Amino acid sequence: MKFLYATNLQIPNTIMNRAIFPGTFDPFTIGHYSIVERGLSFFDEIVIGIGFNQKKKTLFTVEKRLDMIQQAFAHEKRVKIMSYNSLTVDFALSVQANFVLRGLRSVGDFEYERTIADANRKLTGIETVILFTESKYSYISSTVARELLTYGKDISVFLPPNVKI
After folding, report:
1. What does the alpha-carbon distance between residue 36 and residue 47 come to, in Å, rounded to a whole number?
2. Distance separating alpha carbons of residues 99 and 93, to the nearest angstrom
3. Catalytic-labelled residue, pool 18, 32, 65, 102
4. Is 32 a catalytic residue?
5. Are 30 and 159 in contact, with CB atoms under 8 Å apart?
6. Disulfide-capable partner of 50 in 29, 83, 85, 109 (CB 3.0 to 4.6 Å)?
7. Residue 142 falls in the annotated catalytic set
8. pTM across the whole model
9. Catalytic residue among 56, 114, 136, 153, which?
10. Out of 3.30.420.140, 3.40.50.620, 3.40.50.300, 3.30.1380.20, which CATH number does the structure's domain 18-158 have?
């Protein structure tokens, strides 16, 4: 078998790998933050999409969630934050994303994410990239954070650096 090696190969930089990281993010936790930070090693840009889901009762307004995430990523020019009120895959197309980035905490998350990823790929060809949550954050969820807040507990340890509620 022969291998060809190219020297001085110029790869055009016109192709951008852009991913969306969709979710309700009520609130945006340090686990979410970790997924985005790690995802930046794979993608040129990540668009965090705050989705509006009528089935979910949220604690924070979309504006407050946008503000919290902007606080977390004020230092990072490759992260954009937007809200959307459509199918996630339609949002991905609207921002010209090539990928959907998702995080998995447990086996329970896997089946749901796989079903959605398969549907998105079938509809649009957009691939889903899954990163496993770092084990030190696997117990953190927005649901737990919201519940603790309703009982007056401090959740700052669950939030990214620089984020204030």
Report:
1. 9
2. 10
3. 32
4. yes
5. yes
6. 83
7. yes
8. 0.88
9. 56
10. 3.40.50.620
